[in-house]
From TrEMBL:
Listed GO biological process terms: long-chain fatty acid biosynthetic process; unsaturated fatty acid biosynthetic process
Domain Cytochrome b5 heme-binding, residue spans: 35-96
Alphabetical list of Pfam families matching this protein: Cyt-b5, FA_desaturase
GO molecular function: heme binding; metal ion binding; oxidoreductase activity, acting on paired donors, with oxidation of a pair of donors resulting in the reduction of molecular oxygen to two molecules of water
Organism: Vannella robusta
Keywords for this protein: Heme, Iron, Membrane, Metal-binding, Transmembrane, Transmembrane helix
Top-rank taxon: Eukaryota
Protein name: Cytochrome b5 heme-binding domain-containing protein
SUPFAM superfamilies the record matches: Cytochrome b5-like heme/steroid binding domain
Taxonomic lineage from the root: Eukaryota, Amoebozoa, Discosea, Flabellinia, Vannellidae
Signal peptide: none
GO CC annotations, alphabetized: membrane
Classification via InterPro entries: Cyt_B5-like_heme/steroid-bd, Cyt_B5-like_heme/steroid_sf, Cyt_B5_heme-BS, FA_desaturase_dom, Fatty_acid_desaturase
Length: 462
């Protein structure tokens, strides 16, 4: 459902201005590999890398790129004016001014919302609570227990449970850690981030794909890697080409992303191949990591293979271990798919998606391209929130990525109120099942809708 938008009794805040111009140049422009581009200006932060309070690896993500969105959202709750002032001494005065994709007005939607949420958490902890840390410890223990029982007893149910608990740890720990949302200590967040490599992804590739590419440019064709991920098989944007096979995507997508090769294992394979063949992570230019980061990934992946393959071979036959491993990864993939599929690709987000040439307030763009589900105060929805790391509060996560998922329900109320004041639709489905049904509708629509049209064309046709 879409939360109805009504004007408040008091005088509403000014609506964020929508600039009408082409995005083509902004999407395609090139950047000097030595600098960080923020709000159109270039900065040389080389001397600041090791001093960055959030960790050097996060700062390295923005080098040679426009990192405005990353900069603004990560500092949303820690006081944006301080980091902005600090930037001045690193500005490269003679660098050309770059075109911006989004509007960043202090009295616009995101500026107002950011101030309200920042005021709510002034003097409070907005990272992981003790309950979240205890929960993560329990989930890791359950994962270790289930996989150990799987290869000792050969019981396939334990392998299935192991895969599910692996993804729960991924969403509650790794996902938040990658956004520095677990702790204010970079070392703690980095350790949590390594769970990505433990599941045979690659934590550096994940940062470029998800934290930089997807979160900065959600739903923007040519910039959001999630739009272009397996684009030849699954069409998710009106600008994407209609392939002969995508006419049937509403039939095979469910099997492709849940069973073979499934979204988690398939992404693991693509992470190892795509950056080296195309020099991109789907569409985000790939930046090589430092030797230390590469070594961390190699060591963690090697230990994971030993734990998931070689140690089990000491207890079971090769065929049994292979089946246990496949079941583990299959249910990792199913768990991953049902959580991420309805985050942006639903019939509701399709109706409210921004026009191609609109340069909106960044926060409004995020809200329009993102959808929630299961956000009531009922016990079932609360359990979903806690077990799956708040993935059902995707709007709040995109607006405030450095905020731990424990605080999403509280922030959601502020976001909904501000959306009403600015006449912005707040996309939310009543249940998890409803969101998956809406995803199915989205995939079916994209299978047949003509290329190059506007998203408003769909609304007019229904």
């Amino acid at each position: 459902m879409v939360v109805s938008v009504t004007k408040p009794v008091e005088k509403p805040l000014p609506v964020t201005p929508t600039l009408k111009r082409s995005r083509r140049e902004a999407v395609r422009q090139q950047y000097d590999p030595r600098y960080w581009v923020i709000r159109g200006k270039s900065y040389d932060l080389s001397e600041f890398i090791d001093k960055h309070p959030g960790g050097s690896y996060i700062l390295l993500l923005g080098k040679g790129r426009d990192c405005t969105e990353l900069f603004e959202s990560v500092h949303a709750l820690s006081g944006i004016n301080g980091p902005r002032s600090m930037l001045r001494k690193y500005e490269v005065k003679d660098a050309p001014i770059k075109e911006e994709l989004f509007a960043w007005e202090d009295d616009g939607f995101y500026g107002v919302l950011r101030k309200r949420v920042s005021d709510r958490f002034k003097g409070r902890n907005y990272k992981a609570t003790w309950f979240v840390l205890f929960k993560i410890l329990i989930l890791i223990s359950l994962y270790v227990f289930c996989w150990t029982q799987a290869f000792i007893t050969g019981n396939y149910l334990y392998a299935i449970a192991s895969g599910i608990f692996t993804e729960m740890v991924g969403f509650c720990l790794m996902h938040d850690s990658s956004h520095n949302a677990v702790s204010k200590r970079p070392s703690v967040n980095y350790c949590g981030l390594l769970w990505s490599s433990w599941t045979l992804w690659n934590h550096w590739t994940w940062l470029q794909h998800h934290v930089y590419g997807h979160h900065s440019y959600t739903g923007v064709y040519g910039k959001d890697p999630d739009v272009h991920n397996v684009e030849i098989l699954i069409r998710k944007h009106l600008k994407s080409k209609k392939m002969n096979v995508t006419k049937f995507q509403h039939w095979y997508t469910w099997v492709l992303l849940t069973v073979l090769p499934n979204q988690h294992l398939g992404q693991a394979l693509l992470y190892q191949i795509h950056p080296h063949l195309s020099k991109t992570v789907f569409v985000t230019p790939y930046m090589r990591s430092t030797m230390r980061i590469q070594l961390h990934s190699i060591v963690v992946m090697a230990l994971s293979i030993v734990w998931h393959v070689f140690i089990p071979l000491m207890f079971q036959s090769f065929g049994t271990v292979a089946l246990l491993w496949l079941l583990n990864y299959t249910f990792m993939g199913i768990s991953y798919f049902v959580n991420v599929a309805p985050n942006h690709d639903t019939e509701t987000t399709l109706r409210n998606h921004p026009a191609h040439n609109e340069v909106l307030d960044w926060g409004e763009h995020q809200v329009r391209c993102t959808g929630n589900h299961s956000i009531s105060t009922g016990i079932i929805d609360r359990i979903i929130t806690h077990l799956w790391g708040g993935m059902n509060y995707q709007i709040e996560h995109h607006l405030f990525p450095a905020l731990n998922h424990a605080h999403y329900p509280e922030v959601s109320k502020i976001v909904q109120e501000t959306c009403k004041e600015f006449n912005i639709p707040y996309n939310a489905e009543p249940s998890w099942l409803a969101s998956l049904k809406s995803y199915g509708t989205f995939i079916a629509v994209m299978a047949k809708f003509p290329r190059g049209g506007e998203y408003s064309d769909y609304t007019k046709s229904t």
